[in-house]
C-alpha cells in the first residue's frame, strides 16, 4: 500500500513539473499585453506585405511603358543605346532588390517554422494550453502560406525582369553601327544635294535682281531703275537707253516699248 501511494505521488509530481514547465514557456500567451502586441504585429505585417506587392508591381509596369515608348521613338542611336543601358542597370538593381527580399522572406519562413516547432504541445493532457497553442499554430501556418505566395510572386517578377533585360540587350545587339553609318551617309548626300539646290536658287535670284549688261543691282528709282522691254527682258534704265535692240533676243525697240517697273517686289515666283 505504501508503494502504491509513493507511485501516485511520483506521478503527480511529474505531471505538476511538466505543467509548470509548459506554463513557464507559454506564460507570455496568457498576458493581454502580449496578445495585443501580436495582433498589432500581425496588422503591421499585413500592411507591409500589401505595400511590398504594390511597390513591386509598379516598377514592372513602368519598365514596360518605358520599353514601349523606346520602341516607338526613332532618334540618335547613341542616345537610344544609353537609355537602354540605363534601363538594364535599373532592372538589374530591381532584380537584386527582389532577390534580397526573397532571401528575407525565406529567412522569415524558417524563423516562423522554428517557432512553430517550439510551440508544439508537449503534454496533450493540458487542453486549455493546447487550444491556445493550436490557435497560434494556425496563425503561423497562415503566415507561412501567405509568405509562400509572396515568394512565388517575387520569383515570377524576377523572371519577368530578366526577360525584359534580355529583350533590351537584344535590341542593343541589333543596333549595328554599320547600318547607322549607311543611314548617316544617305542623310549627308541628301543634305549636300539640298545645299546644291539652294545655292543654285540663290544664284538664279541674284541673276534676276542684277542688270545683265553691267551686273549691278537694280534700284527702285534713279538712273538704274528697272525697265522692261516689249520682249519681256529686264535691264537697268541707263544701260538700255544706249541701245536700240534687245541684247538678249535682238528685238528692235523704241522709247515707247520701254516700261518702268515700280516697287521692290520684282522677283519671279520660284
Automatic annotation (TrEMBL):
Coiled coil ranges: 81-115
Biased composition regions of type Acidic residues, renumbered to the chain: 1-10
GO biological process: interstrand cross-link repair; protein ubiquitination
GO cellular component: nucleus
Keyword Ribonucleoprotein on entry: no
UniProt xrefs under InterPro entries: RFWD3 (IPR037381), Znf_RING (IPR001841), Znf_RING/FYVE/PHD (IPR013083)
The name this protein goes by in its record: E3 ubiquitin-protein ligase BRE1-like
Organism: Drosophila pseudoobscura pseudoobscura (Fruit fly)
